[in-house]
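The following record pairs a protein chain with its ligand, heme C.
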Amino acid sequence: MEESILKVSTPNYSLICSLALFFCFYLFSSVSFAAPANTGEELYQYYCAQCHGVKADGKGVNATEDLPTAPKDFTSPKTLPVFTDEQIVKTIVHGGPAVQLSFIMPSWAEILSDDEVELLRAYLRKTCNCKYDPEAAAKAEAEKST
Ligand code: HEC
């Protein structure tokens, strides 16, 4: 008798547990991962400004002496013109090491959608008012190897 009650109630508990877990996951994911913003500038201010600076000048609150690699000034003609659009996208999606930069620049693959990355790339190009410049890139490469 007791055994049959147990048999009936066990699947119900697991169903309740699964539903509860699913619900928690749903709540958690919608609160922490949903993009709070949808323009490039808003995304930038939310995800990037703490290191790269609210004015994209590399002076974010996290850019202290304790940060092993300092973010550069995005508005400087030395920073973004040396990267192609593809490299900028790669850097955002896969992080610094994907383009031989510091691991301090994190990968955003798990957090940002392709559309959001594209909005950010466009926003960064706006902050520097620049395009890829092969000459600047060659110069930066030469400076690196000296
Ligand atoms: C934890 C701090 C941190 C955060 C947050 C961060 N970055 Fe970076 N990022 C860096 C650092 C440091 C570098 C420079 C790496 C180097 O020069 O080796 C960098 C480099 C870059 C570069 C390559 C250009 C350059 O400076 O040489 C791009 C593009 C970039 N970040 C975009 C972004 C975007 C877009 C976001 C937000 C989605 C973001 N970063 C968030 C730290 C950060």
